[in-house]
Amino acid sequence: MSSTLPASEPQQAQASASVTNDFSIQIATVNGSGSQTANLVLLRTLFQMGIPVSGKNMFPSNIAGLPTWYTIRANRRGYISRKKEIDLLVAMNPETARDDVMGLEPGCAVVYDAPLRLDTLRSDLVFYAVPFDKIVAEVCTDAKLRRLVKNMVYDGVLAELLSMDAGEMQQALARQLGKKPKALALNQAALEAGRTWASEHLTKADPFRVERMDKTTGQILIEGNTAAAMGCLFAGVTVVAWYPITPSSSLPETLIRYLRKYRMDPETGKATFAVVQAEDEIASLGMVIGASWAGARAMTSTSGPGISLMSEFAGLAYYAEVPAVVFDVQRVGPSTGLPTRTAQGDILFAAFNSHGDTKNVVLLPGSVEECYEMSMASFDLAERLQTVVFVLSDLDLGMNTWMSKPFDYPEKPIDRGKVLDAEGVKALGGTWGRYRDLDGDGIPYRTLPGSGAPAYFTRGSGHNDMALYTERPDDYTKNVDRLARKFETAKSLVPQPVVEDVAGTQIAIIAYGTTHFAVEESRDQLREEHGVEVAYLRLRAYPFPATVHEFIRRYDRVYVVEQNRDGQMLGLLRIEGEPASAVRLRSVLHYNGLPIDARSITDGILAQEKAGNA
Amino acid sequence: MSTDAQAPAPAPLKKVNRLQLDVSSYRGSKTTLCAGCGHNAISERIIDAFFEMGVDPHRVIKLSGIGCSSKSPAYFLNPAHGFNSVHGRMPSVATGAMLANRGLLAIGVSGDGDTGAIGIGQFVHAMRRNLPLIYLVEDNGCYGLTKGQFSPTADFGTKAKNGVVNDLPPIDLCAMAIELGATFVARSFSGDKKQLLSILKAAIAHKGTSLIDVISPCVTFNDHEGSTKSYAYVKAHDDPLGEVSFVPFFEDISVEYEPGSTTRVRMHDGSHLFLRKLEETYNPTDKLAAARLLHETLARGEFATGVIYIEPDKDDFLQLLNLVDEPLGQLPESRVRPPRAVLDQLMDQLR
Ligand SMILES: Cc1ncc(C[n+]2csc(CCOP(=O)(O)OP(=O)(O)O)c2C)c(N)n1
Ligand code: SF4
């Protein structure tokens, strides 16, 4: 610890060829050590300096004690997907430090807790040994708090090394801890101590630095689950039933906060909403179905395991034609292991959820802004189509911090769909039947209990268009054929795909959800590094409108990029698409639990282009 | 219902209730259950109870899970919206509906399999919440619709039609309900018209959850010798706690009762329940006494019927949620979509 100079030869990393506003920092800590505040202060500082940023938390399924990595990417061109390579490592966790260092590319910089002596591991990196305990002991007398405050010291060190703006950093810290003056003062002191120590003891030997830009003016930083909660708030949700599960919980929990703040009746102080933490996901969807059936705008939020439990009810809602909004913030696989990692693995399960002839509307938000907008759209669609609408977010979108333009206030009024009161039924002059297709769009009219309008009896599969019990084969087929027609209608009502045709190329990408940002960057890589132009269609919903199939027809090789092992969306496109187009579809897949990155896509496409197109 | 004394007696008028509705407004479609099934008798009592209480049938929702019992909502109150949901999940659907519209009056019909087996979780949590709901279990100790397997309320030692003897102890849904916080718990027998009718009327008047376990023999699969849920066995072992009389709030109390031998309970809506004790000094507002009674009668192989436990004024789930008076499902956009300024404020906090 006596030597504060990097042990390796600093000249290997060319400090002279500086890299400005284009790097990723990985902070390796222990879960529960309170590093989140420090990480968000770093993220916010960069954001306030006008530099495009994104923050991704890779955390274990554990409350305290297991390793956690937080990655911050700063990119002057505005790329906000995960960067595969790490440029700067902050190694605070003894357990993972060795692996973390060994995994770096040559030329990276490592800030580490001095006792770990990581500098002996490699000679092709820039090492900065920092005696965190010693620095923190000087500013924090309470030994119990030191563990938490220690994190702020690495913020100070990084600020000095990267030339971050001290004023912005103070402001970012005040934003995080402004309501707790004692903690704020302590953390400010730790921040300063880190900065001062670094300026007195470290010699800059890596190329990375920041410089003020103006690329974040007016933008917001937000997590997808918060955005979705906002969408539900402005959608006018009235009944919420849920059961806790990562990575979904923060959606209903944020929504509850908003509802308590913004939806208490100003005159009576009473709630214009009901929230129930149900006994499980079966009950959650049951409550949503009961509430929607009786006229509420109802939603639930869960992840894959919850969707599994909801399957029987999902089919009932499909057959009985009851609106229901279900958020699925996707995560990896069942049970223990990787529930806190991201995936796009519930595509087919959501689309065909339940037994029998079921098909569900699935919305695919690709940004925090779409989390907000599609939340609102999901209620309108569920009520308009009288069916289950799954909103498929994922852990990366839902729980990580994203830059976005501010959200717009909804212009369209709320659409409650085809609901008739007693007068409305009378006006139809005896033609109304609960499941009668009066408009030719497959969507019948419903009446609400307690409204005084004629009643009907709700059942699963066995009803005719007057909602009377039947087991007749012709009644059944007539009904499910109408449901299929209704699904056709849905194609024009769901969010339409975003199409970017490129003239003169035979290659295209189809992607959806969080894969979008990596695709955008990969398209630039392909163009700039390899001269390959790629068209792009971003799916935003299932069922697919005709534009999707037309797009596929226009290109020879269409790479469906997604975050699951088996190419689920590709499978769905094959099922729904034109048989002749099936041969055009190829997969680029990423499924290790980490968010997809641009380089993996670029490499995946180039490899297949080389192999199959020589 | 004013009658003109002068007028010659016309053809006998149909009997109407306080809403001027006759009983046909409370009937349902023709039953498809077996002739003699206890469930049919219960549907008849439900029709009578809603008719006599003068409930607007449009205000009622009738829900169920899956089973023969769960089919019965189609056989009463046609003018009410009905929902035959999925196996064991009636409570959640009923809960959602009541959240959406607190003005509704919900009756949920379930079976002993629907509630005691697959639906036991939802049953447990429904009892805890004290949601306004009449939760009626048509209890035949077997699965009727899947042809006679034992259900979790089958008594220890009872014999199935194929001769198999049940060697597991039964779940006593009434005892569970009391333990879990239900505020009106009763047991009855589909064959006891008078008692069941009074109990149903009291349940309609009750604020909060009423759990009514009605022993309802399955004539096809569980009515033989050796079954403890057969008509013959239940008649022989029905041990009524006392006589149950109910006087709704809209009628004068003309019942003469002796305070010593009759407990009078004032219901939340102003109706009265008179429970005339037949034997011991049973107090239906004492949880521990109720639990003891259920254990003792079970040990004797008998069914204690009547109102076993009542707590008339406990806050229900909708009160706990502090909901506005109007149905949530009918609030206009102006009351559920916050104004633009709220979004602006939220955006500012994120910049
Ligand atoms: C998920 C599911 N599992 C199994 C069944 C098959 N099933 C239908 S009714 C029933 C039992 C009904 O028994 P009970 O609730 O006692 O009603 P009863 O028919 O005796 O009135 C079963 C197991 C089902 N419908 N759904
Ligand atoms: S099988 Fe049993 S429970 Fe079902 S309808 Fe027949 S008698 Fe009733």
Chart the SSEs and their pairings:
The complex is a heterodimer of chains A (614) and B (351).
Chain A: E1 19-20, E2 22-30, H1 35-48, E3 53-58, E4 67-75, E5 88-91, H2 94-102, E6 109-113, E7 126-130, H3 132-139, H4 143-162, H5 166-177, H6 181-201, E8 208-209, E9 220-223, H7 224-235, E10 239-242, H8 250-262, E11 274-277, H9 281-293, E12 298-302, H10 304-320, E13 324-330, H11 347-351, E14 361-363, H12 368-385, E15 388-394, H13 395-399, E16 401-404, E17 419-420, H14 422-427, E18 446-447, E19 457-458, H15 473-493, E20 498-500, E21 507-512, H16 515-530, E22 535-539, E23 541-542, H17 546-553, E24 557-562, H18 568-576, E25 585-589, H19 598-612
Parallel strand pairs in A: 1-8, 2-5, 5-6, 6-7, 10-11, 10-12, 12-13, 13-15, 14-15, 17-18, 21-22, 21-24, 24-25
Antiparallel strand pairs in A: 2-4, 3-4, 9-16, 14-23, 20-22
Chain B: H1 38-53, E1 60-64, H2 68-71, E2 81-84, H3 90-100, E3 105-111, H4 112-118, H5 120-129, E4 133-139, E5 142-143, E6 149-150, H6 173-180, E7 184-189, H7 193-205, E8 209-215, H8 231-237, E9 238-240, E10 242-247, E11 262-266, E12 272-277, H9 287-299, E13 303-310, H10 317-320, H11 333-336, H12 340-350
Parallel strand pairs in B: 1-2, 1-3, 3-4, 4-8, 7-8, 9-13
Antiparallel strand pairs in B: 5-6, 7-13, 10-12, 11-12
Helix pairs in contact in B: 1-7, 4-5, 5-6, 6-9
The complex binds thiamine diphosphate and iron/sulfur cluster.
Iron/sulfur cluster (SF4) binds next to loops of chain B.
